[in-house]
Every structure is written in structure tokens, then in C-alpha cells.
Design goal:
Elements (H helix, E strand, L loop, with lengths): L2 H19 L4 H8 L3 H8 L7 H11 L13
Helix pairs in contact: 2-3, 2-4
């Protein structure tokens, strides 16, 4: 696994934890953020290198500041 893949998986894990803390399903977050369920599911599996605007959209759906999505430990 290369560094990029590792970072995507670490972000995916963090996003999943934040979503769970907000007690939202992937479907609920998709609806709140205006994203497709399948796209959000792929992001949470670490399969998608998301864009900056998608990051902002997810943060808005979670009702958090975008910096909270980037506040995780990574190698």
C-alpha cells in the first residue's frame, strides 16, 4: 500500500468516526450534504481522493468546521 492509499484510509476512518459521533448513517449524511450515497460510501472506504469542495460539503452536512475533518493522526 502506498502513502496516498494509506492517507485515504486514515481519512476514511476518521470521517466514519465523526459521522458516527453525530449519529448519522451514510444515507443521512449523503442527504444532508447533497452527495450521492455511493460517492460517500466510496469516500468512507478510502476509495476516492475527494476534492476540496467535497470536503467542505461533507463538513457542512456534518455541521462542523472543515478543519475537524482534517484533525486526525496520520503517518
Amino acid at each position: 500500500m502506498n502513502n496516498k492509499e494509506k492517507l485515504l484510509l486514515q481519512f476514511a476512518s476518521h470521517l466514519s468516526k465523526v459521522r458516527a459521533q453525530k449519529q448519522l448513517s451514510i444515507r443521512q449524511l449523503a442527504a444532508a450534504s447533497g452527495l450521492e450515497y455511493s460517492q460517500l460510501q466510496r469516500i468512507e472506504k478510502g476509495k476516492v481522493n475527494l476534492s476540496f469542495t467535497t470536503l467542505i460539503t461533507i463538513a457542512q452536512g456534518l455541521e462542523i468546521h472543515p478543519k475537524e475533518l482534517l484533525d486526525f493522526e496520520f503517518d
